[in-house]
Design goal:
three-stranded antiparallel sheet; 204 residues
Amino acid sequence: MKYSTEIQKAQFDEQGLAIAAGWAEVYICHPETREYMRASLDNVPFGGSVVADAYLDAPELPTKTDIAIVRSDDEKSWLYVTDHRGKIAYSTETRQPLEVDFIGDLPDTFTLLEPKTEFDKWNGKKWITDTEAQKAALVAEADNEKALRLNEANNTITYLQEAVDVDLATEDETAALQEWKKYRVLLNRVDTSTAPNIDWPQKP
């Protein structure tokens, strides 16, 4: 016939060379990561092959979002591998977060499970809080807070006591001295081993 509305399609032999020139549907992957990118059309000349990183077999699209399509190293098939890109993984050694930017399984030293405290340790399957270390830190923090409060009380009492000793204290200062002394007594009675459940005395 003089005219045709049919698109000339290429035909290929077993080696992937065109035995009839024409258009071919191809499926292209990234040249470096080998990840599937898109479908396209390639105009293949007689005796030629499709463009680089393009293949004639269509990949089956996964139903899950955490799967990536990758061309195999031997270029014969499509592989379906784990894809955690964009998620946050955590080092099982340091608890430090890392945004995943690669295709494939996480290294053994990372997990998608988030540690809940700075005292969490990885037991191979999940995070376990080191309650002893956590308690020790809370007690140390309470000890520091107690020391700061006592230092403030001691300085205030020293000043007020001097005013009383030289008969220069006002009535308010004399009353304040007694309140600060009571406050210091109560502070000294605080048991920091009960941290974080400490009822700190009210400062005057």
